[in-house]
Design a protein that fits this description.
This protein is α+β, with helices and mostly antiparallel strands. The chain has 2 helices and 6 strands. A 6-stranded mixed β-sheet has the order 1-2-3-4-6-5, with helices on one face. A hairpin with a 2-residue loop joins strand 2 and strand 3. The longest helix is centred in the middle third of the chain and has 15 residues. The protein is globular.
Length: 107
């Protein structure tokens, strides 16, 4: 679990787990008071960093089909819907290919 805070106040959280070789982003929530301030993007970037360090190449998530704000956010972060995935109730399955960190030669 990752937490974002500002001036000692919790502003957002992200959580993920790996089970049976599959990593799932289970939570990414930002306090609505802090929307559009970069908190979600910072939490997402921290998740990406953790996934890269762990050698994770692909991550899935489920998003509520009526949550268009979240879907737009995930689309800007590079998540793609899996049209072959069976629907999980009223949720859509999205996948993200995690790029590898490029390290300059000589380091």
């Amino acid at each position: 679990m990752l937490c974002a805070e500002q001036d000692g106040e919790l502003t957002g959280v992200a959580a993920f787990r790996t089970r049976d070789g599959e990593t799932t982003l289970t939570q990414l929530h930002v306090d609505p008071v802090h929307w559009r301030r970069g908190t979600g993007a910072a939490l997402h970037a921290a998740c990406l960093d953790a996934w890269r360090r762990a050698g994770i190449r692909r991550v899935r998530l489920e998003v509520y089909e009526h949550n268009l704000r979240a879907q737009a956010f995930y689309a800007t972060q590079g998540w793609l819907e899996d049209p072959t995935a069976p629907r999980s109730g009223s949720h859509r399955t999205l996948w993200l290919r995690v790029g590898q960190v490029s390290v300059p030669s000589g380091e």
